[in-house]
């Protein structure tokens, strides 16, 4: 070894350079061959999958409809903090593959308690249709990817069609075992979609699993496909199971797929519905004074109401950016006082996204006993018991200026309603809100119960603020919503309403 080292050291410099160049050249050639080979491999795989799912019959498809009955699990949005709700969903997704149209319908819940959702995408713009209010609203946020809440990703055949369209994007990513069988991995990113990796069974050519990047770094949403069926020579999995963050999320319990169906009336909104006006633009964080010592602050879907009690501030509404809202209020009021209390409306993850900030501000949490663990978890810091002020049915703070009522609904077993006594203002979450500039929002059974609860407590509410909107509604709006409330109806011509 020593001799060789010496030889190299004393060797001719020119020949060394030539040797390096040659090695470099070989590396380049080798790498180029590797890329070319991988590219060829990915294209062969795309062809293999297309053939397995029906070949020309698949690529010539004009339209498809997938009708799914699914069971899903509501992490962070259950009615009780110590349990996970199970939800039944029935969805119908119709895709016009040539024109990139989507018709999405969903019935969520059971026969005695359900909500419906209807969205259309016409290749350019999206519409949300409210069949209870008989309104159509143009919705800028709707795209081909999300018009159906990305439900079409649950159908392996739809993934193959996406891959077919964007085949030049496909990249071979090696092999992996899935359920004991060897699979080829193929990654691709369709326009407007997140990165997806398909695990393609080497034996059958079917997609066993699709992995989609999760917003938690290093995590994936995993779509598992099984129980293959075929119709008109086109293949699809009749069962899809979706997991994410190491938890089961959704399971298909029944599926019907139709190919090349008549879609003449699928993508047209009802003509006799009113066009819903543009929503208020809440994109900028703003603070406003509502009454003496009462301030509203927020943006988008997160708002809080603050009260200056003289000695300190107290607030209701625990959405993300609580700190920024508090800063805006202090600036507007031109005072600097601590935030002593934060009323936590309920335990749902979105409403706990500001707990970290509340903990850092030194606030005590006004809550119910059942929500302490969820708040501690969301705050991500050790919170001693004395940082929690427990409300049992009702509570009164700051010499009665701020009162709290616990209200039970199907949404959450405990909802704390906050009443700012002097301003006769009620703050609620997920109960009564509107982003429309005028008019009363759709009522609910819960509102009728709230009305009775408020009367019982002797609260004469004149204004209603909400966690999800910067519009303050009036007592007249509240009464109108209750008066005009009609139970949800499933449109008669919807297939999923009859299951
Ligand atoms: Zn909620």
Mean pLDDT across the residues is: 91
- Fraction in helix: 10-25%
As a whole number of angstroms, the C-alpha radius of gyration is 29 Å
Strand order of the largest sheet: 7-8-9-10-11-12-13-1-2-3-4-5-6-14
Please tell me the CATH architecture of the largest domain by its name: Clam
Counting structural domains, the number is 2
Quaternary structure annotation = single chain
User: What molecules are bound to this protein?
Assistant: zinc ion
How many H/I helical runs?
9
Q: Which structural category do the helix and sheet elements fall into?
A: alpha+beta
Word description of this protein:
Mean pLDDT is 91; it is low at 1-18 and 29-37. The chain has two domains: 54-275, Clam (outer membrane lipoprotein receptor (LolB), chain A), CATH 2.50.20.10; 286-483, Metallo-beta-lactamase, Chain A (4-Layer Sandwich), CATH 3.60.15. The protein is an alpha+beta fold. The chain has helices spanning 2-10, 13-53, 56-59, 156-165, 322-333, 355-361, 372-379, 445-457, 475-483; strands at residues 63-74, 85-96, 101-110, 113-121, 126-130, 135-139, 171-178, 181-188, 196-201, 207-213, 220-231, 234-244, 247-259, 274-275, 286-291, 294-299, 302-308, 313-316, 339-343, 364-367, 388-390, 394-397, 402-407, 415-420, 425-428, 463-466, 469-474. Helix 2 (13-53) crosses helix 4 and helix 6 packs across helix 7. The protein binds zinc ion. Zinc ion is lined by residues 346, 348, 351, 411-412, 430.
């Amino acid at each position: 070894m020593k001799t060789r080292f010496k030889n190299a050291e004393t060797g001719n410099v020119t020949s060394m350079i030539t040797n390096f160049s040659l090695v470099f050249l070989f590396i380049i050639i080798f790498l180029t061959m590797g890329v070319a080979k991988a590219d060829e491999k990915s294209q062969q795989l795309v062809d293999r999958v297309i053939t397995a799912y029906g070949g020309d019959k698949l690529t010539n498809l004009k339209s498809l409809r997938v009708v799914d009955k699914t069971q899903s699990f509501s992490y962070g949005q259950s009615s009780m903090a110590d349990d996970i709700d199970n939800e039944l969903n029935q969805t119908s997704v119709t895709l016009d593959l040539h024109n990139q149209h989507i018709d999405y319908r969903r019935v969520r819940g059971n026969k005695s308690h359900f909500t419906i959702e209807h969205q259309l995408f016409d290749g350019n713009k999206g519409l949300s249709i409210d069949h209870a209010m008989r309104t159509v609203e143009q919705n800028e946020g709707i795209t081909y990817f999300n018009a159906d809440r990305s439900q079409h990703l649950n159908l392996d055949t739809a993934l193959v069609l996406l891959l077919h369209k964007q085949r030049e994007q496909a990249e071979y990513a090696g092999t992996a075992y899935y359920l004991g069988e060897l699979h080829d991995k193929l990654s691709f990113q369709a326009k407007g979609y997140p990165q997806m990796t398909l695990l393609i069974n080497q034996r059958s050519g079917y997609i066993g699993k699709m992995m989609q990047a999760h917003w938690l770094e290093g995590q994936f949403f995993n779509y598992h496909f099984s129980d293959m069926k075929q119709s008109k020579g086109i293949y699809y999995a009749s069962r899809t199971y979706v997991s994410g963050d190491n938890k089961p999320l959704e399971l298909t319990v029944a599926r019907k797929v139709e190919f090349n169906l008549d879609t003449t009336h699928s993508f047209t909104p009802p003509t006799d519905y009113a066009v819903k006006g543009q929503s208020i633009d809440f994109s900028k964080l703003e603070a406003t004074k509502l009454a003496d010592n009462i301030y509203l602050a927020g943006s988008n879907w997160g708002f809080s109401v603050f009260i200056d009690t003289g000695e300190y501030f107290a607030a209701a509404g625990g959405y993300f950016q609580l700190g920024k809202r508090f800063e805006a209020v202090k600036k507007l009021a031109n005072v600097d006082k601590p935030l002593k209390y934060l009323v936590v409306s309920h335990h749902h993850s979105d409403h706990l996204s500001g707990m970290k900030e509340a903990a850092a501000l030194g606030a005590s949490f006004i809550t119910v006993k059942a929500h302490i663990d969820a708040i501690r978890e969301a705050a991500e810091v050790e919170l001693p018991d004395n940082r929690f002020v427990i409300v049992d049915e009702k509570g009164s703070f700051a010499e009665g200026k701020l009162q709290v009522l616990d209200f039970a609904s199907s949404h959450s077993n405990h909802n704390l309603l906050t009443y700012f006594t002097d301003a006769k203002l009620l703050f609620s979450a997920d109960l009564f809100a509107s982003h429309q500039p005028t008019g009363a929002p759709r009522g609910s059974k819960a509102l009728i119960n709230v009305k009775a609860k408020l009367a019982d407590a002797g609260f004469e509410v004149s204004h209603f603020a909400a966690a999800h909107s910067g519009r303050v509604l009036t007592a007249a709006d509240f009464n109108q919503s209750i008066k005009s409330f009609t139970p949800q109806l499933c449109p008669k011509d919807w297939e999923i309403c009859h299951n």
